[in-house]
Amino acid sequence: MKHLTKELWFNTRLEREFVNVTETVADLVAESGVREGLCLVNAMHITASVFINDDEGGLHHDFDLWLEKLAPHEPVSSYRHNVGETNADAHMKRQIMGREVVVAITEGALHLGPWEQIFYGEFDGRRRKRVLVKIIGD
């Protein structure tokens, strides 16, 4: 069995940001030499997410507004977690958007649907964070 483990590092400009990592992950699949297998893409921080969806700016804007309605940043005093840091909302946004994705590898490529892209979602940005990519198969 072949395998590859890599970490992708991020330091976003904004507090909340969505970064398309599909091409980077596809390059790692090619590097791995795996023709048939699985690719795990996993946020390694509890205020960040990895998810699959469409790469369309309006949708990303809608995600941002929707998440802010579900888990608003302000007032920070409304969260018990906000002691020392004010990122309780970021923890909740991560729970909504998810921790990781697993994508099939077929004939040496990510087996995604027509509009599917892999995203890193940052909800407490401007600091260094990482994503694990683990590829296994034959």
Question: Top keywords for this entry?
Answer:
138 residues; alpha+beta; Jelly Rolls; 5-stranded antiparallel β-sheet; 3-stranded antiparallel β-sheet; 25% helix
Could you write a compact summary of the structure shown?
The chain has 138 residues and is of the alpha+beta class. It has helices at residues 22-32, 57-70, 88-97; strands at 2-10, 17-20, 37-43, 48-53, 100-106, 109-110, 117-122, 129-137. It has a single domain, classed as YjbQ-like (Jelly Rolls, Sandwich), CATH 2.60.120.
Description:
With 138 residues, this protein is an alpha+beta fold. The chain has a single domain, classed as Jelly Rolls (Sandwich). It is 25% helix and 36% strand. The protein contains 3 helices and 8 strands, in the order ββαββααββββ. The longest helix is centred in the middle third of the chain and has 14 residues. The model has no long low-confidence stretch (mean pLDDT 97).
Strand-helix topology:
Blueprint: E1 2-10, E2 17-20, H1 22-32, E3 37-43, E4 48-53, H2 57-70, H3 88-97, E5 100-106, E6 109-110, E7 117-122, E8 129-137
Antiparallel strand pairs: 1-8, 2-7, 3-5, 3-8, 4-7, 5-6
